[in-house]
Design a protein that fits this description.
alpha/beta; Rossmann fold; three-stranded parallel β-sheet; two-stranded parallel ribbon; about 40% helix; globular
Amino acid sequence: MSEVLVVTGGSRGIGAAVARLAAQRGYAVCISYLSQREAVRRMSTRHGGSGGAIVNLSSRASRLGSPNEYVDYAASKAAIDTLTIGLAKEVAAEGIRVNAVSPGLIYTEIHARGGDPDRVDRVKSAVPMQRGGTAEEVARAVLWLLSDEASYTTGATIDVAGGR
């Protein structure tokens, strides 16, 4: 049986890139979701599951604050960071790892939807690597955290942000 991956927001942007890359690597991909509570119950070794991994999508905005741009978005992603740390500690003994990926300036449609389609190009000079990232680069980090190669990683947030 192949590994199952549940992707929220898999219809576009980073979620779509994760779904595509996971499918290419042999995962059975499901683009639907009820809640982490239900996911934990189903994966928990305490409840008959075989363990698993949850990877949340945060944002560098959660630690940069995004003043004068996306402060509300930054605050919501800071909540994801806290959820990741707390849930990781709660469910580690049940065979479940919980981590997050924190993208920086990524070329996705979120900027256009926010009214600034050229935002990445406008601010990429503030990124040490001097460029924006791609959704596929973020997807690779997500899939690494889901893999057995990250079997001793829980409660972590990996920045995919070009050093910003």
